[in-house]
Amino acid sequence: MPGVYPIAAGMRSIGSASMGYVPELYSGKLLVKFYDATVLAAISNTDYEGEIKQKGDTVIIRKTPDITIRDDEDGAIMVPDQPTSDTESLLIDKGKRWFFVTTKVQDKQTDLKSYTDAWTTDASEQMKIAIDTDVLGNIYADASAYNCGATAGKKTAGINLGASGSPIVPTKADILEYVAAAGQTLDEQSVPEDGRYMVVPPWFWTMLTLSDLKNASIMGDSQSVLRNGRVGKIAGFEFYKSNLLTSVSDSGKTPFYIYFGTKHALTFASQLVENSNTDNPFGFGRLFKGLQVYGYKVVKPEALGYLYAAAN
Q: Whole-angstrom Cα distance, residue 62 to residue 47?
């Protein structure tokens, strides 16, 4: 029939859809994204952070000297000691960055009012996760030899914290013994009790809660889990849960490096040296970028140890 045309397959004949366009409706909110809890700020000191200006900087850390104690003897001539401070160098040799571009078309078509804010917030969270993963994946090598292995303990050399080829496998019945053993290891190094922490994977914390330690009052903390993963206090340790601890394959098991110690052990310094958004010189839109430089060092190995433990 003249003037009448068939409707092609897939086309709708009502309203704006009559030309084959089917509008899609988008939610005004981004899907919630879950981030791994980061713990680095809770287990390290950041005393030297303000001295960083760029990647490649070196921060000089001065140590408190040991003062010699002598017997007092009648008639002895007193000769003063002249203490000198040893130094440590903290090199700011690492960096993480993010970089993305938006277009004018995205700005016009988006139904999200502040989508770039959401994206830069995500970049910031991912940055924290990446840095935590780096630090937690490497500091075990710098822990004191007295604070790890099958013969830990500076005084006793008889504490089994797990070793390569023979990781410990805690159970509900004995997991508290390993926590106590970690405390004894620090005691034998004369590490202060104040400020002790332990960073554990979720399975370790679950096992603790199923052990003889059953209620929050015994754990010393009745509050809910905080953003940094803090979950409670046991046997003098502040506990933090983390999904970022390093694990390896060993003897058919998957042991984790489960850290314990105090903030005195690890110094960390970081600076956000670039955080900007500018016009894209190569197109229509904007460039968003961020650069964070950082460095870390175990400056008191006696205040850092780890359990080498597998779930089963």
A: 12
Q: Residues 223-232: contacts with CB within 8 Å, 24+ apart?
A: 227/37, 228/37, 228/38, 228/39, 228/41, 228/42, 229/37, 229/38, 229/39, 229/42, 229/199, 230/42, 231/205
Given the structure tokens 């933090």, which residue do they identify? 240
| Domain 31-312 CATH (choose: 3.90.1690, 2.120.10, 1.10.287, 1.10.10) | 3.90.1690
Residues in the chain: 312
Sign (positive or negative) of CA dihedral 42, 44, 45, 50? negative
Is residue 108 classed exposed, middle or buried when 0-12, 13-18 and 19+ CB atoms within 10 A define those classes? exposed
Cα dihedral angle (269, 273, 277, 280), rounded to 10 degrees?
-130
| Per-residue pLDDT in tens (0 to 9) along the chain, 312 residues | 444 444 444 444 334 444 444 455 445 555 677 888 899 999 999 877 766 667 778 777 777 778 888 888 888 888 888 887 777 788 888 999 988 888 766 666 555 567 778 888 899 899 999 999 999 999 999 999 999 999 999 999 999 999 999 999 999 999 999 999 999 999 999 999 999 999 999 999 999 888 876 544 444 555 433 335 677 788 899 999 999 999 999 999 999 999 999 999 999 988 887 777 777 777 777 888 999 999 999 999 999 999 999 999
Task: Judge contact between 250 and 307, C-beta under 8 A.
Answer: no
What is the reported pTM? Answer: 0.77
Domain boundaries, the chain: 31-312
